[in-house]
Amino acid sequence: MPPKAQRSLNIAQPVSSSRAQSANAVLRSATSTMATSGLAASKSSPRSSFFPRTFMATGSARSEMEAYYEQLLSQDRVDGVDAFGKNGIHLLCKGLGIKPESFEMYTLIWKMGVTRGCCIPRADWLKTMYTYKIEQIMDLKLFLVEWMKESSGDSFTEFYNELYDYIRGEEARLMPCGAAVEAWAVLFQNEPRIIPWIKWYSDIYKREVTRDVWRQIEAFLSAVPNINAYNVEDRWSCAIDSYVEWCKVSG
User: Fold this and answer.
1) 178 and 100, same structural domain?
2) Pairing of strands 83-84, 120-121
3) Residue 182 sits in which domain range?
4) Cβ neighbours of 88 (radius 10 Å)
5) For the residues 104-126, what does the mean pLDDT come to?
6) Which residue ranges does the record assign to the DCUN1 domain (predicted)?
7) In total, how many domains does the chain have?
8) Which of 83, 99, 163, 220 is the most exposed place for a label (fewest CB within 10 A)?
């Protein structure tokens, strides 16, 4: 090796060693500082007081809404599913100040993307809480107010259609007539034309509600302003055709 290159190498080696020692010192200092800061933060954190002692004792890092889910789950866990059922839903509604079979609750089910009948799975709950950065029950209340504007506005059709599976229930293949009638009364509470439809369906038709009929009654009420405007050539279901005929005969 040429003398100049050899001298350069000999000079570079102590410099490199010096940098490594300096970097190690900085790393040790930073690690010590982070550990001290983290300990201080954990002692002073106001949120730690929320968790029940059972969670604090195990050192769990779960959020308030995860802990709240466990409370709801303790009311009634659905067999074979990581989800809480009707008792948990009632407790959740009590915390939110709403009714279980209400427009508000249906809106919450829609925004969480729940498709299982009459229960709320952990996966849907956690996805919603973390997506919207919901940390407390009060946050959920505030979001629900905004979501209601969507479900009762331009997003109503999407909101309504996606509720079929939840209202149908987990054990039923088709939506029971009684469940559908109760839901229609809530979801179309500001639509007077739902009243004769409910009367006809529950007193005369009395059949389980298919997904097609569920969707078509919303489309019918949106597209047809009155019975006289109904066009038999349009592709409506037999249920809608029969209902219109009944309305005409009944006057």
Assistant:
1) no
2) antiparallel
3) 172-250
4) 21
5) 96
6) 60-248
7) 2
8) 99
Confirm if 112 and 124 have CB atoms less than 8 A apart. Answer: yes
The tens digit of pLDDT for each residue in 194-221 reads 999 999 999 999 999 999 999 999 999 9
User: Is residue 224 domain-resident?
Assistant: yes
Give the pLDDT band (50/70/90) at residue 86. very high
Question: Measured between alpha carbons, how far is 59 from 53 in angstroms, rounded to an integer?
Answer: 10
Query: Please, is 193 exposed, middle or buried when counting C-beta atoms within 10 Å of its C-beta (0-12, 13-18, 19+)?
Result: middle
* Residues 123-129, mean pLDDT to the nearest whole number: 97
> Same domain for 153 and 72?
yes
Number of residues that this document lists for the chain:
251
Cβ atoms 103, 123 nearer than 8 A: no
One DSSP character per residue, 138-176 reads HHHHHHHHHHHHHHTTTTHHHHHHTTHHHHH-SS-SSB-
Supply 83's token pair. Answer: 């989800």
- CATH number at 70 reads 1.10.238.10
Does residue 126 sit within a domain?
Answer: yes
Residue 52's Cβ-side half-sphere holds a number of Cα atoms within 13 Å equal to 8
Q: Summarize the confidence of residues 138-164 as an average pLDDT.
A: 98
